[in-house]
Structures are given as C-alpha cells and as structure tokens.
Amino acid sequence: MPDVMKELASIAWSVVLVVLLNASPTLAENNEAPVDFPEAGSVAYHIQFRLLRGDTSGALALGRRSVAEAVPDLATLVAYLNALTTRLSWDDRYTALDDEIMETADRILVGCESRLLRDQDDALAHHFCGSSNVSLSYLHAVRGRYLRAITTTTRAMTSHKRALELEPTLQGAKMNYGLLLYFTDNLPPFVRALGQVLWFIPRGNAVEGLALVKETVLSDHIFGHGARYPYGDILTDQENDYEAGLEQIMFLVERYPSNARFYLRAIWAMEKIGRYDDILTLVDRFRRSANIPINHCDDQGMTPLLALWRVRALTHMGRTRKARAELRLVLRCPDEPTWAADTFDQTRVSLGLTALNS
After folding, report:
1. Using 50, 70 and 90 to split pLDDT, how confident is the model at 38?
2. CB of 230 within 8 A of CB of 26?
3. 304, pLDDT greater than 90
4. Bigger pLDDT: 102 or 210?
5. Cβ-contact 170, 34 below 8 angstroms
6. Residue 278 neighbours by CB under 8 Å, 6+ apart
7. Cα angle at 60 between 55 and 61, to 5 degrees?
8. CA 85 from chain center: how many Å?
9. In the structure, what pLDDT confidence band is assigned to residue 296 with cuts at 50, 70 and 90?
10. pLDDT value of residue 192
11. DSSP symbol at 96
C-alpha cells in the first residue's frame, strides 16, 4: 500500500504548483476577473503576487504578519496556505512548516464548513474546502500518512466538483479539478482496479481532466497563465511531448522573468531534447534579470541548481574545463534541495571532482 500512496503524492504536487499561480494580481488584457480572483489590494492579492514573482520568503512573511495581527478572511488564509505548501513542494523533506500547514488548513476547513452550514450552495466555500484538502493531501503523502492522503484527495475532488456545478466560472476550481481528474486516472492500473471496489481510492478521467486544464490554458486571463505550468508538465512528463511542454513553460519565463522555478523547468525540458546552447543562454538571462553573480547562493538552493544545469550543458558540449571551474563555484553553496543531491553527486563524479578537491 505505501507504494500505491506515493503515486498519489504526484496528484497534489501538480495541483500545488498551479495553486501558487492561479491568483496573480496581474490580469491579461482587460478581461473581467473571475469570481474566485482575490480582490485587488487585498492581502491575498499581494501574497499571490509574491509567489508568482518567485518571492516565496516574502509571501510567507506577509502571510504570517496578517495572520498574527488580525482575524484573516478565508481568501487570506488560502493564499497563506498556498505559500506554505509552495515552500514545502520545493523540498518535501523540509519539515519546519508542517505544523503551520496543518493549523492553517484546519482553520480554512472550519471557516468553509461554517459557511456551508449557512448555505450549502456557496460555491466559493466548496472551492476553499477543496484547496485546503489539496494541501493536506500533499503533506500527508510526503510524510507517509497514505490513507489520510487518499481521503483528503477524494474530499478535494468532491469539493471542487461541487463548486463547479454551482458556479462554472470558478477558474481556479476548474484547473484544480481538471488536474485531479487527470492524475488520478494515471495511477498504475492495479491501483485503478482497486478503486472499483475500495471507495477511498479516487477515480479520475484523464480525457475530461486534460480538457478542463486545456480550456483554462486557452483563456486569455491570468488563470490561463497559471494552468500552463501543470499543462506543460503533463505534456513533458506524461505525454513525452517536450517541445509542446517547453512552449508552455517558456510563456511563463517570458511573462514572469524573476521566477527561478520557471527557468528550472524550462531547462529540464531543454536538456531532455539536447538544446544545450539554449540552456546556457537561459541561465545567463536569469542571472542578468536577477542581477546575481555566477557564485550566488540562495536559501532554497534555486540559483545553485540553475548553475548546475549550466555545468551539465557545458559537459554535454565537451567544454569540461569550464564545466569543472563553474562546478567548483556551485559546490561552495551550503544549501541545496535534498532531492537534487544525487544530481549534484553524479555531475561532480562525471567531471572527476571529489568532495576534497571541489
């Protein structure tokens, strides 16, 4: 059963990535904001703005202040939970925020369930409950609480489905529900078979789910921008269409040039299709945009990862001397996401560097 449940972690992962984008303060063109869009100037609005710009630390700081200094509304709590879960999703072995995630999610559930007691047709309340359960599902899955992960995934799907039945214009709910449908339908066959007899294993529909995500991507609105990240992931990871997936991610790089995650995802796809010159160009472009030196280190290990992928590109191009020199600078950074440790080690060994001479 644990292996089955690990597959479910990818469901919440993909939805979490879109949650950090789906409420940006910038609208495309002059389209009217959807019902589930944060009010301009609100705390939720500014938290999401920081997330979209790649400033997770700033989003967390703003969220903590507003939660501590006042009685926040549900939109603010959801935005703060997004920030907390976004930080966790970068490195799921980072446990410092676990209690805050649980407490914030519980506060949201109390609030949305209270609203539903007054009005069971409150579409936004259903959407907020769904968003809370998405975060809980991810946290439970990465901490090995697999049964709870399945239960909260099922609750999230039920909530988002009901929200859309009541208010089909909820773009955030449409994206989240579409992603949940897609990824639950792409669980291993034996898990889907169990789902026919075990009520707690959610059932998906990849065709319907992908159609909902694509529909959101095609909309000329910021929600469409947000949907491009998981849609690009699906095209590259599930459909093996790297060029099409890269096109979606490069849209985000062009639109939001300060977010290192977008660059990292684009570079990952570029490496898969051998576009090494483009990797060098993209890393240099980010450094110019962020005004950082080659040996820059950040507390989440994003900029060293960008530098590492540049080293890997140089290695593939046969420029090993330069690759070794740049890798020595990268290895001086004290922090890296734990999931990247093997990639760092493999690159170091491939260039003949050891811990002592690096």
Report:
1. low
2. no
3. no
4. 102
5. yes
6. 270
7. 100
8. 9
9. confident
10. 42
11. T
Task: Name the most confidently modeled range: 30-44, 75-89, 197-211, 291-305.
Answer: 75-89
Residues 6+ apart with CB under 8 A from 3: none
Q: What is the DSSP string of 232-278?
A: HHIIIIIS--HHHHHHHHHHHHHH-TT-HHHHHHHHHHHHHTT-HHH
**Which pair of tokens denotes residue 276?**
């090494």
Q: Indicate the burial class of 23 (C-beta count within 10 angstroms; 0-12, 13-18, 19 or more).
A: buried
Cβ atoms < 10 Å from Cβ of 183: 25
Contact between residue 56 and residue 50 where contact means Cβ atoms under 8 Å apart: yes
Alpha-carbon gap, residue 224 to 18, rounded angstroms: 10
Higher pLDDT, 335 or 123: 123
Question: Which tokens go with 47?
Answer: 């938290």
Mean pLDDT, rounded, of the chain: 81
* Separation between Cα atoms, residue 322 and residue 311, nearest integer Å: 8
Q: What value does the mean pLDDT take over residues 54-59?
A: 90
Residues 6 or more apart in contact with residue 328 via CB below 8 angstroms: 353, 358
Using DSSP's 3-state secondary structure scheme, residue 358 falls into coil
Contact between 215 and 174 (Cβ < 8 Å): yes
Alpha-carbon Rg of the chain, whole angstroms? 20
In angstroms, the CA 259 to CA 272 distance is: 21
**Angstrom distance (rounded) from CA 196 to CA 68:** 45
Q: How many CB atoms lie within 10 A of CB 200?
A: 11
